[in-house]
Amino acid sequence: MSFFSYESKFSQILIKLSYSCWLNMLWIICSLPIFTIGASTTALYAVTLKIADDSETNVTKQFFDSFRKNFAQATRLWLILLIAGIILGLDGYFVYHLRASSTGAVAVMWTLNMALLIGIAIVYVIILTFTFPLLSKFDNTDIAMLKNAFLIGVRYLFLTISVAALHFVMFYAVVVIFTPLILFGEGLVALLSSYLMINIFRVIAYQQENQEESE
Hints:
- The structure is a single chain.
- By secondary structure, this protein is mainly alpha-helical.
- The protein has seven helices and no strands.
- It has helices spanning 9-31, 37-52, 59-100, 104-137, 142-155, 157-177, 185-214.
- It starts with 8 loop residues before the first helix and ends with a helix.
- The model has no long low-confidence stretch (mean pLDDT 90).
């Protein structure tokens, strides 16, 4: 097989890199109104999970099909998470400064509050990490989607850490090392994350099918 033939490993890697670049551009454009970030992220993972499963066809069509299909629920979930994130960030800001300006027993109290907020922030990040990939693959209520995102993140802790590390590495690379990498940005992170998630999502889908058959 030729090194540059369509079926070669090298060509397939280049094709998937080009997909990630194009999907990243679609994700940025569709996220610009801010309140659509949830729908845009869901659409992004709907395509990258198909790529990881070797079942993609027309990536642009699949992106916008998912964007339209999941828009209402993804937007609701995103606004819930956005408001929660703002509240958590403000709490963290005030507690940090109150702790810094306090001494003695009061400082200890604010330190304990800060530790509690850090724990809540970890839970928040776990839920944020898995909510939209789950929404792109499964149908469920808003509460169940948030609950399942947390349970999956805790059960598959190595996966959670790996996905978080991918986001951090991309952010660091764009900001510190080579800014033009923003062309790949979230598209490449989502694609790599999808390869990590796909086997777990296959197991969940299989369990869901068996449960539906038994009912």
